[in-house]
Specification:
Elements lengths: L11 E3 L4 E10 L5 E8 L4 H9 L12 E4 L6 H10 L4 E4 L15 H9 L5 H4 L6 H20 L1 H12 L1
Length: about 170
């Protein structure tokens, strides 16, 4: 995700994605509910950032978590070693797109994470990263997901609120 000029010092460039800014790493459950967020410079490899993303989530917090699905950029020996040492009950399952598939191809199980990463982009504040620190950028992601969950829990209440406010 590109950052604005005031986006802070933790910016970098990712030549593969051709962006300058920060990347959002998210850990979600099978429903797409947010478990953890990590904002890093775009030049940081996803597999190298994964231990920092997974560290705050303990097996005690998520007792049914066994398999972590990720894209091919999470295929990292250092990540495998970290999982074996710190989270022995967890395993990484790398999901890649079928060989020979042209253009965009949704991959089962990985699509949940991609969809969840796209949801905050609907919030004006998250559509472009203008936060000065990665911590405040992560907080805004948490807030937008909280707003999304509240809208899904009580959609009629939100509609009534907006209609009353407009009247």
């Amino acid at each position: 995700m590109e950052t604005t000029e005031g986006g802070g010092a933790e910016r970098g460039s990712d030549g593969g994605k051709k962006i300058t800014g920060r990347t959002r790493q998210v850990l979600v459950d099978t429903l797409g509910l947010l478990l953890a967020v990590l904002i890093t410079s775009a030049q940081v490899d996803d597999g190298a950032a994964a231990p920092a993303l997974l560290a705050p989530v303990s097996p005690h917090d998520c007792p049914r978590l066994e398999t972590i699905c990720g894209a091919t950029n999470y295929n990292n020996h250092a990540l495998d070693a970290w999982l074996a040492e710190n989270r022995p009950g967890w395993r990484l399952e790398v999901k890649s797109r079928p060989p020979g598939s042209p253009g965009f191809t949704p991959v089962r199980n990985r699509w949940v994470g991609e969809r969840t990463k796209a949801w905050p982009g609907r919030s004006r504040r998250n559509s472009k990263d203008s936060e000065r620190t990665p911590a405040s950028a992560a907080a805004m992601i948490y807030l937008s997901h909280l707003h999304l969950m509240l809208r899904k829990l009580a959609p009629s209440v939100q509609r009534e609120f907006h209609y009353e406010a407009a009247a």
